[in-house]
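User: Good morning. I'm curious how S-adenosylmethionine would be positioned relative to this chain. Could you predict the structure with it bound?
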Amino acid sequence: MITKDDRQEFEAHKREMALALGRDKEAFRQSLDTLVTLDRYDYAYLWSWMGLPIIQMPADIMATQEVIWANRPDVIIETGVARGGSLIFMASLLKVIGTGKVIGVDIDIRAHNREAIEAHPVAPLITLIEGSSTEVETVAQVRDAIPPGASVMVVLDSDHSREHVLAELRAYGPLVTPGQYLVVADTLLGQSEASQTPTKRSAIWYPGDEPYAALNAYLAETDRFEVDEALNGKLVLASSPGGYVRCKSV
Ligand SMILES: C[S@@+](CC[C@H](N)C(=O)[O-])C[C@H]1O[C@@H](n2cnc3c(N)ncnc32)[C@H](O)[C@@H]1O
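Assistant: Good morning! Here's the predicted structure, ligand included:
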């Protein structure tokens, strides 16, 4: 039987629906209400990737996977390592791709977390740097770990205050190379009501003092990035809608 190759059509439909979903304010509101309910159960903390806890929503993990697979960065920098799951996740994708490495930065890499990361089969693809992500010395160490000419993607998931994320954006945004993504985590904090802000955290970030406010301030300073409307549009039941921006090709 001859079947029609419908892949282009399928992809076009996906894009159209993702863009339409992104415009659907009621769907977004319902998703947000559900997330507020799920936070009672620490939903973002319930998952692991290949054995290590990954503090992410499944939808954000899918989006990051799409970006990495499509763009195959030589280097991925992540600020905010925590228990290592997201580093392992990104390194495992690069392992399958066959090239690339991940640099993880955290102000506090606890011995048991370091041990678990270093014992993982994808550990050879990971470089850990301990220090505050915005310290000049830390940024210099990160820069030194990037091979000349490498394509670079950045994920910011550390201290979520506006001031810190904006400082990270100014330090790490310029490292992102054309065609690659800059991902700012937890942008949902800036798209919720103050009453919906998660409070079961070591620090609490209310609307205005959070990553989305920082990203918008940064996007007003630079024209190097464009918001990926289709990818962000489908980020419901997610922490980082609006947080995926692409470095424009030169
Ligand atoms: C939300 S967790 C990261 C979760 C991780 N990306 C994951 O997906 O599993 C935030 C991390 O940021 C780190 N952090 C807080 N302030 C920081 C700073 N100034 N510089 C670097 N890391 C920081 C914390 O130690 C914590 O491990």
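The first helix runs from residue 7 to 23. The domain at 7-247 is CATH 3.40.50.150 (Rossmann fold).
Let me know if you'd like a different ligand tried.
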